[in-house]
Design goal:
Length: 149
């Protein structure tokens, strides 16, 4: 991996650290001012802007208490791809859930300019041996929307 690619990977790792703390001061330096975060399918809202995305992850942390872990990460040129796992709880009275997924990042000038997250839903309840498990649904993401109102 070239030094610039390693720097891009390091930025994404710091971004995940910020998702784990939920602290704006940890997230903001990793994001371009005009960052765009896409969820696929499109039923999940696109998040635009550094402040908006950082506030989204702060609220996500406060609401679902997730712990993210990078399982694998690679960088090539201005692209970074991660495979992650996330332990989260829909509410304080429900069991923990393990979600897994990938994210694709486009880097620009040393920060994240674009994130694309393909989301699939599993109808199979998670087990100790499951490789995939349910992800938060669209209603959960709307609930986490950091915009006023």
């Amino acid at each position: 991996m070239q030094p610039a690619e390693q720097q891009n990977v390091d930025v994404v790792l710091r971004y995940f650290d910020g998702c784990n703390t939920g602290e704006l001061d940890d997230l903001l330096p990793t994001l371009a001012e005009d960052v765009i975060h896409y969820f696929l399918p499109e039923s999940f809202p696109t998040i635009r802007g550094r402040e908006h995305l950082a506030r989204f992850w702060r609220k996500y942390k406060r609401t679902l208490d997730p712990t993210w872990r990078i399982d694998q990460i690679i960088g090539a040129g201005d692209l970074v791809v991660s495979e992650w796992s996330c332990r989260w709880r829909p509410s304080a009275t429900t069991p923990w859930v393990m979600s897994r997924g990938t994210e694709w990042y486009v880097m620009r000038e040393g920060v994240i300019a674009e994130v694309c997250v393909p989301i699939s839903r599993s109808t199979v309840p998670p087990t100790a041996n499951s490789r995939t498990s349910p992800t938060p649904n669209a209603a959960t993401y709307r609930e986490l929307d950091p915009r006023p109102g």
